[in-house]
Structure formats: structure tokens, C-alpha cells
Write a structure and sequence with these properties.
With 382 residues, the protein is mainly alpha-helical. It has helices at residues 7-28, 30-42, 46-56, 60-63, 65-77, 79-88, 90-110, 116-146, 170-194, 197-226, 261-265, 271-288, 292-314, 338-365, 372-376; strands at 150-152, 158-160, 233-235, 252-254, 317-319, 329-330.
């Protein structure tokens, strides 16, 4: 079977689709994490926290489909990247998965006992599972931009030369702050839509503060890249975009300003960082005006801009190696086979519209505010 699309085109399509899945995960599951992160601050009583929890109750499991899709696509489209990244970033990924396990356990067990101490314990579980994953995802993406110390031998066996604590460098921590700030504002916008009264007012206050922090932090990260304060990588040798998955055949060099080249060559890419910074600030203003729906839309655009900014800056790199430059993985030399990418694309064309349509229908069904009276009359609420 010969796929009708050439290999280079399929690699580009899957690079774009992977970005779409990451954005979908950050936008859709982002407000779930954000609500959890706001539990101790926006909800001061047990009833208020129940309202917050039940605002995401019908959708949080479905939103995790985006995480599963992104992980599955990464494994199938770029198996070398999947194996290398999950080995090098093992401790961070383990902590993310542990936090993702804590979240459903906290949601289910919280209502099993009316004791304030019991419920407070699980509320902090929701807080941890709301803050830790976005923070660690941000730290990981910040380190991916700087490069990670790994190398391949001639048999393509990867060796990682760093440790988890080395990921907690200034730029990585700044990226973690950006991620948490975006997610908190996303959760605040959702609570502004779904709640009223004191919960809504507190959510607006903390969400708008987070938006301004996120915008300032993202601008600061951009300046650090602009002034060459982190490692930047460029391919010096010729690369065959239709070549096999073998990264050691190219020459990579450290080059100041390399992450800006794509923006200079394609000026339309500047829209991504502009939307990222401006979107977070504007969403904060919309929150202050109690316009939750517009704040959610604008902050979702800001999240898209932030993720797209990193993708545009690094292309064609996927995971640079800071210790053995030639081992750096790119879109061109880390992809699955031509046939695999085509079969995956067919599956995506069939199932992605179904997922989007079903998700849209669910959100239409649960539209409206969540209030305590409705919860007290329901046996299915948390």
C-alpha cells in the first residue's frame, strides 16, 4: 500500500496535529486543573467547595480524552521521542501521573464522610492535583526549549545525563509559573460562568491576578530567549525531510538567535506570542468585567498562542540534546514510517470530528449555573 501523501507532508501534518492535541488538552482539561487549584481560595465553606467541584463533575473525565489522545499520538507518530522523553523526564512524568490519580480519588472519596477534617484532606488533594500537573508540564516544556542532556549510541540506545532537580532551573521554573497562571485563569473563567455570589467574586479576583502574572512571565521568558540567555539550536548540515528515523546523520550547533529565525522568515508567526501575552492580559480584564464566557475564549486563544510560540520557535526540533548535539530529535528524523503516519491520519480524520461533536453536545446539555439547591436535591452530585 502506497499512501497518497508524501512522507514529508505527513510528518508536517502530524507535527501540526500534535500541537492541536496539546492545545486541546491544555484548554479543555485546563479549567478542571484551574478549578482544583482555586479550591482553597475561592471556596471558603464546604457548600461553596461542593459547588466548585460539581461545576466540573460532569466533564472532567471526558476532558482527559485529550491527554490520552496526545499521549497515544506521541507514542505512535514519534516513538523515538516518546521513549527518550519519558526516560529522561521519568520522575516528572511519574509525579504528573500520581497527581492525575489523586484527582479522581479526591473527587469520589470527599463526599464519603461529612467530617470537616476528612473533606479538608481531600480538598487539598484536589489542590495538589490541580497545581502540580500544569506546573510540571510547564517545567518540562521549558527544559525542552533549552535542551535536555541525552545521547544515542550507534544502536540508538538513549542515555540520559541529567536528573530531576536539574530540570528545576530558572527558565524551567518560569515556564512552570506561566503554565499554572494560564490554567488558574482558565479555571476562574469557568467558575465565573458556572457559579455566582462569593465563589464567582473570589474566582474573578484570583483569576485576573493570575492572568497578569502569566502575561508578565511569558513576556519575561520571551526576553530571555531574545537576549540569548538559554541554549538555542540550529541544524548546520543538510537534512532530508523524507529520510528515515535516524537522528545521528545530521550536524547540530548551538547558535544564539536560532529560536527567532522562523519568526523572521515567516512574520505571521509573531501572532502567536502577541496573542499569548495580550490574550492573558485581556482575559484578566474580561474577568474583572465579570464576562466569564469571553474571558474563557480569550484565555483559550492565549493558551494556543503560548503553545504555538514554542512550536514555531523550535521547528523542526522536537527535543534538542544539550550534551550530544547530533542526538537532537527533529520532525524529520524521529517520525514513524510513512504507512503508520498515513493510517493514523485516516483514524484521526474519522474519530476527531466525533469526539469534538460529542464533547460539544455534552457542554450544551450541562449549560447553566451550578447552585447549592440543585446539589442538595441530587443523589448523583459530589
Amino acid at each position: 500500500m502506497v499512501p497518497p501523501l508524501d512522507y514529508e507532508t505527513l510528518k508536517l501534518i502530524w507535527w501540526a496535529l500534535m500541537g492541536f492535541l496539546l492545545i486541546g488538552f491544555a484548554v479543555m482539561d485546563g479549567f478542571d486543573f484551574g478549578v482544583g487549584a482555586l479550591i482553597p481560595f475561592a471556596g471558603k465553606t464546604d457548600d461553596e467547595r461542593r459547588v466548585m467541584i460539581n461545576s466540573i463533575g460532569p466533564v472532567w473525565e471526558g476532558n482527559q480524552v485529550w491527554f490520552v489522545l496526545a499521549g497515544g499520538a506521541l507514542f505512535a507518530a514519534w516513538p523515538t521521542l516518546y521513549a527518550t522523553a519519558f526516560s529522561a523526564l521519568y520522575v516528572g512524568m511519574f509525579l504528573v501521573l500520581a497527581a492525575l490519580i489523586i484527582r479522581p480519588v479526591s473527587l469520589v472519596y470527599r463526599s464519603k464522610n461529612p467530617s470537616p477534617l476528612w473533606r479538608s484532606f481531600w480538598d487539598w488533594g484536589l489542590f495538589i492535583s490541580g497545581v502540580l500537573p500544569p506546573f510540571l508540564f510547564g517545567v518540562v516544556m521549558g527544559n525542552v526549549l533549552q535542551g535536555v542532556p541525552f545521547e544515542f549510541d550507534l544502536d540508538m540506545r538513549a542515555t540520559y545525563g541529567g536528573g530531576f532537580l536539574s530540570l528545576l532551573n530558572p527558565f524551567g521554573l518560569l515556564a512552570g509559573v506561566i503554565s499554572v497562571a494560564m490554567i488558574v485563569q482558565q479555571g476562574a473563567a469557568w467558575l465565573c460562568i458556572k457559579t455566582d455570589g462569593d465563589v464567582q467574586a473570589r474566582s474573578i479576583r484570583f483569576g485576573s491576578i493570575s492572568g497578569f502574572i502569566g502575561a508578565a512571565s511569558f513576556a519575561l521568558a520571551g526576553l530571555m530567549v531574545w537576549f540569548g540567555l538559554i541554549n538555542e539550536y540550529a541544524i548546520q548540515s543538510g537534512v532530508d525531510p523524507s529520510g528515515p528515523a535516524y537522528p545521528l546523520s545530521k550536524t547540530v550547533v548551538l547558535q544564539s538567535g536560532a529560536w527567532m529565525v522562523n519568526f523572521w522568515n515567516a512574520p505571521w508567526m509573531w501572532l502567536a506570542p502577541i496573542v499569548g501575552v495580550g490574550g492573558m492580559a485581556l482575559a484578566a480584564i474580561m474577568l474583572r468585567a465579570s464576562n466569564g464566557r469571553l474571558a474563557l475564549v480569550i484565555n483559550s486563544a492565549a493558551i494556543t498562542g503560548v503553545i504555538a510560540t514554542q512550536g514555531f520557535a523550535m521547528f523542526p526540533f522536537l527535543l534538542p540534546s544539550s550534551s550530544h548535539l547530533a542526538s537532537s530529535l527533529t520532525v524529520w528524523d524521529a517520525s514513524s514510517s510513512h504507512l503508520t503516519l498515513f493510517i493514523m491520519l485516516v483514524a484521526a480524520i474519522i474519530f476527531m470530528p466525533l469526539i469534538i461533536a460529542y464533547t460539544s453536545w455534552v457542554y450544551y446539555i450541562i449549560r447553566g449555573k451550578v447552585n447549592l439547591e440543585a446539589l442538595l436535591g441530587s443523589k448523583e452530585s459530589y
